[in-house]
């Protein structure tokens, strides 16, 4: 029934109370119509059947259901007006508005200023601080004066509140929250805490007359509340990270980034939680340097014994506060216990992954504090970092194996052995590079992720601090920026207090006169109440926790984690840092001929430490500023803002000279020019980091997704087109020429997706010379890695354009299109072709009922007529014809595209010839092909099932069993769909998913066809995507149906005794029964592909693998890992293990199952080939 509206959509008419007959109880919110109301009992007066009728006998239901109106389509819809854009007026609370403005001020005060903008104030600040730091210091001084005004609104707190943010007060809570999400502003927020504390102290000094004493008393508690709130925030995130189910709290601290996550039941990415922990630790460390936070509890911080005598066990047992050094030592001890056991960690609760994660957090904090302390006089600091932090973590780090190990790791982005590409004389060049490739294969696994890079950086920094090597000058300014050093101490004494009460200014700008001192903290250093604030850390160390905090059994239930987004793969697109001691490397660079000046500056002046921490700053900005969409559909943040944050990182680059004091920032003009010159080459860091994240983006998660990263890189190009564009072009050229044969297929396809997105949104602006250079690779079919990259890119662009013949073809060389021309589909025998045309006519033109077509297709008359041409002897010939007929819209679309390509090439590719007549693309394609095919498959499903059954009867059961016959019929359908839809991978995969959804395809049949079927040839380049979608669909059905939990409820043993298994265990066993045959088939078929295609390795370099082997091995890894993730997500995310009592039993079920990597590795062949060894090693790592 059509939708009928009783007034225009733009109407804003209020409800009508005709004659006072409006029922206030039920409000007449009926969809109207002839029918019983939901609560009224009398019929509405509108036409059409209403869903909720009228409220009383006079209510008018009025009209049909309207899609824009939740209350229905009546004239009387209660208080909801008919205008869908109408909103009730909001009553704004002034206090809430002020707090929002406070948060905005806090986030803006630390923003790095743009050096290209003029600075109206050219006054030189005391000291040798950079212009950027001077500007931040002025902002801090000004803001602290405003925030500490007479009203004290932002400093108020309620100590008895259950909400931690209210206890801390708006300013203290907002300051910590801003520091926890601002990776570039941590020093600024530390300076602001110091300034506010001292300003508030001056304004709250009580005179002797007020206290009846002889001394003035400082009454400010701002620093205490700030540190306390930061500790609670840190403890909450530690518990969420470490425990499978975080402890319940009466009123948990509010989550300022995602308010839906408060009780530990969150799907918030682990990477964002770890980032907050790192930033809060860094913030507390800077407060420790300022003297606000104590270095150790109860001892003189300058005493060496205060660090060496600290015992985390004693502190946790007695719930004693700790200093910042004690906090780091506690995290180190917790990491050791999680690895080795002991304390509160039982043997079955050890968790090496969490141990490594804690080590990573501590390691990422060291450089920001240790480098800043290099110039300080106390000698215990180097001893503390080396003996109390770094050395105890070495046994943990030695056990670490990267998931990104080339070719072997589950998340590897590089192959262990490159793919062999046969293109002209390329084979000879590859043979000449055998020695180089062998060296690469032996050394690439040493440093292949960000954690290993971090470890190298910390080792280098520690060696410099200890004097074992020459001290380096780092260009990353966040190590040494100290905006608090430019803050001047306000006038002290009773006079200053009186002046402040009169509202006079005491900012740093008003106090620059002789005799002024730098601002410093004058209170007592504050200790951290880590115990028992963090339940997880307290229990790991061995301390007691309150009864009822942890539900279930008393031993710890540690969470299972994935390092997704925390530890990322390393892809040095522009080369590794230059070794200053290697003279040969410098000579080689000079012999290479003309070079890019900015790239050469980057290569020579950015060392290992600078590159890593600048890259870490980029990743942190991407994490903390990632746009969000609220429940109401409002987008918070955008890619342009993220790009602006990333581009501001150039302000954190010091001069290439060894000391920043050599840079004169005394005037605005000099400072602006100096800031811009210092950042030469920074664009290569930014582009390299974003592209390295793109190649390892996962389709299983929207977190740091490929689309988001692509948007950010595009906005960077728009923001700084001159430099970022050149770096992007250089990166793509390097990736194609040097990295493409070494990239895993998934990483290569991710690059194609990004490149297609980038070209579409940049109007296809790309140097034509690159297209011409890539053309020979495109002509080498999909077995060539570089050609596959270009083919995928063009295919994705064509799928995302309404008319590629006019939008895309004119921008690409004609010779490239010649290599992309589709191959003609092989014609069937005349009788088969005529039958197919007749079926198409009856299905698509006459819209004939399937019950009318089926008798003709399965009848003996048709079979007898085909007997003379030996067609009836072919297996599944009816299935083939019907499948082809149902895919006729895709076949017509393919033909239209083919004709368009041919016409474009014949026209020579000029602009006039590129404007193809619309009939070329629109013939038979007036509607969406996919929608037409979907409707046809649903309607003519009985026809397809009937011909499959008839073909099955015709097969000799003595030669093939029923399972083989079923696989064969599924293979026929898949082969037809793949041949017809070869021009669009998206169209093909969608059709396959529809067949799986309709139960026309089994998961085993699909995987068997993908991995070669009967000819042992990989059917499609991204076969694992089809297999993973089918596996996930089957697993979701298993868990949702309840059959998993119900199966195996009662188990009979040999003594005829019944045992009841826990529900979680039954679910785990059911999933293993579902996934075990799938994974076995994948491994066995992968072995078959390797063995059957071993002849492809003849005549090629010994250290390279054919594309068929690589596709099979990498796809096998992806699916094994996907099943493992499904197992644990089904057990622990779907709510099946809330009690957690059977946690160890579930792990035991998995470890003893046939889906573990070690069990699957036993199925590998013993051919001894290079590919077999790679497969075996990969499975053993799962």
Structure, explained:
This protein is 53% helix and 1% strand. Helix 45 packs antiparallel against helix 47. By secondary structure, the protein is mainly α. It is built from 51 helices and 4 strands. The strands form 2 sheets. The chain has a two-stranded antiparallel ribbon.
Q: Could you describe the largest sheet, including whether it forms a barrel?
A: 2 strands, antiparallel
Computed structural class: mainly alpha
Helix run count? 51
In percent, how much strand structure appears in the residues?
under 5%
What is the tally of beta strands? 4
Radius of gyration: 35 Å
Average pLDDT value?
Answer: 75
CA-to-CA gap between the ends?
A: 55 Å
Helical fraction: 40-55%
Q: Unreliable segments (pLDDT under 50, ≥5 consecutive)?
A: 1-79, 118-127, 206-211, 214-218, 250-266, 375-379, 424-445, 492-515, 550-555, 658-673, 911-926, 1048-1058, ...
Lateral arrangement of strands in the main beta sheet: 1-2
Q: Could you say which overall geometry the principal axes of the C-alpha atoms support?
A: globular
Provide a concise account of the structure shown.
This protein has 1182 residues and is mainly alpha-helical. Helices cover 53% and strands 1% of the residues.
Keywords, please?
globular; mainly alpha; 1% strand; disordered N terminus; 4 strands; single chain; two-stranded antiparallel ribbon; 1182 residues
